[in-house]
Amino acid sequence: MKEKEQIKAVALVMAQAAFDKKGQDISIMYLEGISLLSDYFVLVTANNVKNAQAIADEMEDKAALEGMTVLHREGYREGEWVLLDFGDIIVHVFGGQDYRDFYGLEQLWSDAKYVDFEGK
């Protein structure tokens, strides 16, 4: 397990990777003390299914450079909702705003705090 600040730094690297691949509405939710699943969720909306797959690939590559390995991956083939579980960080890449709205993770975890992120 990485130190808390290291985990946050990796979440920011992943968010930047999504931004670099034209991800939109990128949010980093801090869930420590709220969820046993993970410390952070990184949520990204893609323009379409292919863009969602490209974003997920880039995020996985950048995470690997930071020493994080995907423990579980779901939904990649369909690209509607790609989930990448890195343990301390869970990435959710939605293949469009309709999918993100439908699953409503921000509402489900409404008591989470957010980490500031502005892509560069």
Structure description:
The structure is a single chain. By secondary structure, the chain is an alpha+beta fold. It is built from 4 helices and 6 strands. A 6-stranded mixed β-sheet has the order 3-4-5-2-1-6. A hairpin with a 6-residue loop joins β3 and β4. α1 packs antiparallel against α2. The longest helix has 17 residues.
Number of helices: 4
What's the main sheet like? 6 strands, mixed
Q: Unreliable segments (pLDDT under 50, ≥5 consecutive)?
A: none
- Portion of residues in helices? 25-40%
* Distance separating the two termini: 28 Å
- Written as H for each helix and E for each strand, in order along the chain, the element string is HEEHEEEHHE
Beta-strand fraction estimate: 25-35%
Write down the oligomeric state: single chain
- Report mean pLDDT, rounded to a whole number: 93
Which strand order does the major sheet show? 3-4-5-2-1-6
Structural class: alpha+beta
How many E-type strands? 6
Q: Could you tell me the radius of gyration in angstroms?
A: 13 Å
Q: Which of globular, elongated, flat, extended, rod-shaped describes the shape? A: globular
Summarize the structure.
This protein is α+β, with helices and mostly antiparallel strands and 120 residues long. It is built from 4 helices and 6 strands, in the order αββαβββααβ.
